[in-house]
Amino acid sequence: MDNAIIDDAICFVKNIFEDDHSGHDYFHTLRVYNTATKIAIKENAHLLTVQLAALLHDVDDIKLSPQTHKYKDRAVSFLKEHGVSPEIIMTICDIISEISFKGTDTVVPKTIEGKCVQDADRLDAIGAIGIARAFAYGGNHNSVIHDPDIKPAVNMNADEYRNHVSTTLNHFYEKLFLLKDMMNTEAAKEIAQQRDEYMKAYIAEFLDEWDGVR
Ligand code: ADP
Ligand code: NI
Questions:
Q1: Ligand 2 ion: residues within 5 Å (CB)
Q2: pLDDT the model gives residue 62
């Protein structure tokens, strides 16, 4: 049963995200699933809960599916149709609610399963892939790459973080450079360290080129 439900969940998210160009594409979900699985094995977390939460974490995202966001309708229908127990459905819904970065309103998930999925989602926002996703998101939302007159905002709450207008370069200071120290699990902290260094070296090079140093 377990493998069939995972295969179905992979098909389900593939259909939903195939045409997304906003940084929530199908391959993002697949990478989060793979990384969450690796972390969950090291942490002895409940694997099926982690895997289903990872695969379904973006299907009711407020930006992509505002009408289903509140009650996580798409995730819940999928899980009910596949006979998942009410307890596991509730745990998965909690994980999905807790996962996102929301500035100073960000939460630490209650369960180890949630911690694994949150770490995997965050790892996909940093490093080489994180850089690519940030600029893809910026292009998709008509943001400028960089404007030295627009300074990064700090200590934003969830509303401020969601509604403020900024540059893609500022996104590194407003979110991406903060993620390394927000990882929950030892396995993720180790991976984050290397990805964070890579991203910082990239931004240093970017700013040197911008300033005509190189
Ligand atoms: P998630 O739902 O995975 O927590 P988001 O929806 O906030 O994350 O972001 C999806 C991707 O788009 C991430 O890689 C993130 O860094 C990037 N992103 C989000 N907001 C911005 C922004 N203002 N500028 C550039 N990239 C962004
Ligand atoms: Ni995500």
A1: 58, 121
A2: 85
159-183 as b/e, with b when 16 or more CB fall inside 10 Å?
A: eebeeeebbbbbbbbbbbbbbbebb
Among protein residues, the one whose CA lies closest to atom 8 of ligand 1: 100
Q: What pLDDT does residue 214 have?
A: 73
pTM equals 0.95
Q: How far apart are CA 121 and CA 182, in angstroms?
A: 12
Ranges of the chain with pLDDT below 70: 1-2, 23
The answer to whether residues 68 and 96 touch, using CB atoms and an 8 Å cutoff, is no
Single-letter amino acid, residue 60? D
Ligand 1 pocket, Cβ-based, cut-off 6 angstroms: 23-24, 61, 100-101, 121, 125, 130, 133-134, 137-138, 143, 166, 168, 171, 176
Tokens of 145: 């790459």
Non-local (6+) Cβ contacts of 50 within 8 A are: 36, 37, 39, 40, 113, 116, 117
